[in-house]
Amino acid sequence: MVGAHDLVGVGLDLEPTTLVAAYRAGLFPMRLEGRRGPLGWWSPDPRGVLPLDGLRVTRSLRVSCRRYRVTVDTAFDVVVAGCADRRRPNGWIGSDVKAAYGRLHELGVAHSVEAWDDGGGLVGGLYGVAIGGLFAGESMFHRARDASKVALVHLVDLLRADGVPGRLLDVQWTTPHLASLGAVDVPRQEYLHRLQHALDLPLPPAFAQVS
Fold this sequence. Notes:
The protein is α+β, with helices and mostly antiparallel strands.
């Protein structure tokens, strides 16, 4: 649940240097009033994180993981467009935000994970920002059952692939949906402490290859 104390600043821009500095400081952008509202900078207290060893994968989700083909960074712009679909409630991702994260993707900082059906159609995915051992999840979408969850399972596998401990998967706020997958709340100061450690870690191999 968003609290008034979670908002720590308003304004600035969405240039790559601004965004990277914000994530390194534990902040992320989100507009206050939909796609045209002022740009807010947020640091939730508590902060939602998904422990990499705490992901809950049900039997039905395991079946879904076998149903979809998963890729990394093959359709970044399409994933962001899916997350920005105007039919989604409480959407705030406008053209400027899509362009800003597109630039981060070109710089090897923003990444996507995609889920595809047997016919080659994109049915879900997620995107976020990777800096060192931090992956700051920004948004996810699905057009078929469990597709975004499958992308999340794959993301966790990527973050754990080389066995480096201490990587941090930030999910901003712990919604009931994310809590069902294992996300937990941590106090802001604890999050910032974990963040500083994570930033000193190497990128996961899947993301380092394109940086």
